[in-house]
Structures are given as structure tokens and as C-alpha cells.
Specification:
Shape: globular
Strand content: under 5%
Order of helices and strands: HHHHHHHHHHHHHHHHH
Distance between the termini: 19 Å
Structural class: mainly alpha
Number of helices: 17
Largest sheet: none
Radius of gyration: 22 Å
Number of strands: 0
């Protein structure tokens, strides 16, 4: 029993460690842009980068299924030992990424108008955010490609390649952004140009790695069937036709994830919108506070990715007992990480804020809301762990309904009373929403997975 537990913890760490390094670099992409904007001499640049990034993130949130759904379906295919299904998942994900990208690029002007109207930033922030969006919209195809390929590799039980892609992309992003802003003197626009270059280089690298892996899996399949390495003839294709992922299964998993992502998007956009109504200084402070949340969330996603890969593999193989053991191990790791980040945010939040911005008034404003920063780790940890498990099990409808319930609570707290909007009320609503998501998923898991086996 002890040996089995150690082996499971080892598997979790082998998947989580590269994923954590990967995900730490993901917020660095936004953190790099935010930090450069924070050193351009005015809080309006920080507020503008917050709004511009938020507008682009709308597309990545809505297309979040490209990463999560791809991981879950691929992991279950690995558990079944079906390499053909693994290939089908990637092809379908990339096709959908392409379709979404074409729609976004074709409708970019209308989307920009709609998003600015909803977020309602001040006139200065709106002008700068619009410039950032018009450049940044051209990295949407690249980022969606990276999301699909990264999800595929995680499902294949490897997080090293997504880590390498993320690190490379972010190193290039930092260097290119600094070059464009301070070297070529493109000012605020240079931040967006640097990120544009980095994302496309990352997407090309991701596709190259995927092509290499596809060739490896094709060779394995040919060897398994006692064939020489060659192109499949029509007979072989017909024999393998029943071993593919149907579009109906693909959309069943991903449609629920899409609705879930829409709820998350609505909540996060509302946080920015309400924050902008509370003044430019509050909006700038909230942009930095959100970086604390992103730093913890992407860090915890390393363990969530482990849950996705392992729960999917064990579920695909029909091993429910190992799914439950995976949950227990992940909960232990989650508790440890929540305590570490609680201590870090309690004693180091001001220092971290000063690294992000050199504006003393923004730092002082952040200190007014220090309690919400401290509460983020213990309040939100459960949501990350159980999100990962449910993605791996491809039980995405449960995730959808739980997120809808959490979003309903968020809007009820924020708009359901006559209490004037304050930043404290805004963060109370946001963290309540995150807590309910985690708690409800935990209860659902114990009822539908643990309870049935008991």
C-alpha cells in the first residue's frame, strides 16, 4: 500500500513538475506585459494593458475546451490503448482552432466595439486598449494552436513538451517586448508586438513537435499490426474506422466546457468592468491583484494537469480504484500548496506588488485589499484539483452546472442587493464564486465516484 502510494505520488510529481514550470511561465506572459506597462510612467498604461489583455482573453476562455477537452479525450484514449483515437482528437482540435480563429479575425472590429462597450474603461484606457487589441488579435490563431497541442501532449502523459514550448515562448516574449518598447521605441504598442512574435514562434514549434509525435505513434501502430512502416491502404483505413473519435462524442464533451468557459468569462469580465467604474487607480490595483490569482492558479494547474492525465488514463482503462487514489493524493498536494501560498501572500504581497509596478499609489491601493490576496489560496484550491479530475473523467456536464451555480452566486452577491458597489464587495463576490465551484465539485465527486464504489 505504501509503495503504491509512493508510485502514485511519483507519477503525479513527474507530470506536475514540468506542468508547474510551464504554468508559471504562462502568467509571466501577462506579468511581463503588465510589468513593462507599469514602468511606462503612468497608471493609465497599467489600466489599459489590463483591459486589452482581458478582451483577448475572452477568446481563450471561450476556447478553453481546446486544451481541457483535448486532454481528457486523449488521456482516455491512452487508457484504452488507442493511438488512432489520440490522433483523431488532435486533428479535430486543430480544425476547430482554425475555424474559431477565422471567425475572430473576420469579426475583429465588431468584437472590439462590443467588448469596449461592455468593459467601459475611461477614454484614455479605451484608446490604448483598442490599439493593443488590434495587434493582439493576430496572435489568437497561434495561441489556440498552442492550447490544442499542449492539451494533446498532457493527455499523452507528458508535460515536458508543453513546458518547453511555454518557456521558449515566454523567454522570446520578454526579450521581444523589451526590444520593441525600449529598443525600437515603439512605446505601448511594442508590448503587443513582442507578444505577437513570441506566440507565433511558439505555435510553429508546437506543430513541429506534434508532427514528430504523430509519426512516432503511426510507427507504433504499424508495428503493432505487424506491418512495415508505410502509408495505410484503403482496407486498413476501413478496419480502423471504428477506432476513431466521433464528432458527436467530441462535441458532447466540449459543448459543456464551452458553456462553462462562457460563465467564467462573464464573471471575469464583470470583475474588470465593475473595477473600471470604481476608478482608474482601483482598476490598476485590481489588475495587479489578479496577477496574484493567476500566479497561484497556474501553479495549481500543474497538479490539476496531473489529475487530468492520470484520471483520464485510469478511467479509460476502467480502473475506478486508482481514480479515487489519485484524488486523495492530489488533495494532499493541494493542501500543502495552499499553505505555502497563504504564507507567501501573507508576508510578501507588498514586495511582490512593488516588483510588478513602481507606482506607489497603486501599491498602497493594493495593500487596502491585502486580505483578499491572502484568502485566494485556501478558498480556491479545491476548484483546481477537482476541475482536473472531472476533465480527465470527461464528465464536463457536472463542471458546467457547478460553474453556472457559482456564477449565479457571484452575480447575486454583487447585484442582488442595494449595497453600493465597492472593491471589497467585488472581491467577496469573486472569491465566493470560486469557493462554491470547488466545494460543489468535491461533493459531486464523492457522490458520483466514491459513493458508487462504496
Amino acid at each position: 500500500m505504501i509503495s503504491e502510494k509512493r508510485n502514485l505520488d511519483k507519477s503525479i510529481l513527474l507530470l506536475a513538475a514540468p506542468a508547474i514550470i510551464n504554468n508559471i511561465t504562462v502568467p509571466l506572459l501577462g506579468l511581463c506585459d503588465t510589468t513593462i506597462a507599469g514602468h511606462l510612467g503612468s497608471p493609465r498604461y497599467l489600466a489599459s494593458i489590463s483591459v486589452g489583455t482581458m478582451m483577448l482573453n475572452v477568446f481563450f476562455w471561450l476556447a478553453g475546451f481546446l486544451r481541457m477537452g483535448t486532454t481528457g479525450l486523449t488521456a482516455r484514449s491512452v487508457g484504452r490503448g488507442s493511438y488512432m483515437q489520440c490522433r483523431e482528437v488532435l486533428m479535430k482540435s486543430l480544425l476547430i482552432a482554425g475555424v474559431i480563429s477565422l471567425i475572430v479575425l473576420a469579426c475583429q472590429n465588431s468584437l472590439l466595439t462590443l467588448l469596449l462597450r461592455f468593459l467601459a474603461p475611461g477614454s484614455d484606457a479605451a484608446e490604448l486598449a483598442g490599439r493593443y487589441f488590434r495587434i493582439g488579435v493576430w496572435w489568437v490563431p497561434a495561441q489556440l494552436t498552442i492550447m490544442a497541442v499542449s492539451g494533446w501532449f498532457i493527455g499523452l502523459q507528458t508535460t515536458v513538451i508543453p513546458m518547453t514550448i511555454a518557456i521558449g515562448t515566454n523567454v522570446i516574449n520578454i526579450a521581444a517586448s523589451v526590444l520593441f518598447v525600449f529598443g525600437i521605441k515603439r512605446g505601448f504598442d511594442g508590448i503587443a508586438y513582442g507578444t505577437l512574435v513570441a506566440n507565433w514562434i511558439g505555435a510553429i514549434a508546437a506543430l513541429c513537435w506534434a508532427l514528430v509525435r504523430l509519426k512516432e505513434e503511426k510507427k507504433k501502430l504499424a508495428t503493432k499490426r505487424g506491418e512495415e512502416e508505410r502509408e495505410y491502404d484503403e482496407t486498413t483505413k476501413m478496419e480502423l474506422k471504428g477506432d476513431r473519435i466521433k464528432w458527436s462524442e467530441f462535441f458532447k464533451v466540449n459543448s459543456a466546457l464551452f458553456i462553462r468557459s462562457a460563465c467564467i468569462m462573464a464573471v471575469t469580465l464583470t470583475v474588470t468592468s465593475v473595477g473600471s467604474q470604481l476608478g482608474e487607480l482601483t482598476l490598476a490595483a485590481n489588475a495587479v491583484i489578479m496577477q496574484f490569482f493567476l500566479f497561484f492558479s497556474y501553479f495549481m494547474d500543474g497538479f490539476a494537469f496531473s489529475g487530468e492525465a492520470l484520471a483520464g488514463k485510469f478511467s479509460g482503462a476502467g480502473d475506478g480504484e486508482m481514480v479515487i487514489k489519485t484524488m486523495k493524493s492530489l488533495c494532499r498536494w493541494g493542501a500543502v500548496m495552499a499553505l505555502i501560498f497563504l504564507a507567501l501572500y501573507t508576508f510578501g504581497s507588498k514586495t511582490m506588488a512593488q516588483l510588478i509596478t513602481d507606482s506607489a499609489e497603486v501599491v498602497n491601493k493594493i495593500e487596502e485589499y491585502r486580505l483578499w490576496i491572502q484568502l485566494l489560496p485556501p478558498v480556491t484550491v479545491s476548484a483546481f484539483i477537482f476541475d482536473g479530475l472531472f476533465v480527465g473523467l470527461t464528465r464536463t456536464r457536472a463542471m458546467m452546472w457547478v460553474t453556472i451555480a457559482g456564477a449565479a452566486l457571484f452575480f447575486t452577491i454583487l447585484f442582488g442587493s442595494n449595497i453600493p458597489h465597492t472593491n471589497n464587495l467585488l472581491w467577496l463576490s469573486f472569491e465566493s464564486y470560486l469557493f462554491v465551484r470547488g466545494a460543489a465539485l468535491a461533493v459531486t465527486f464523492f457522490y458520483t465516484v466514491v459513493g458508487k464504489r462504496g
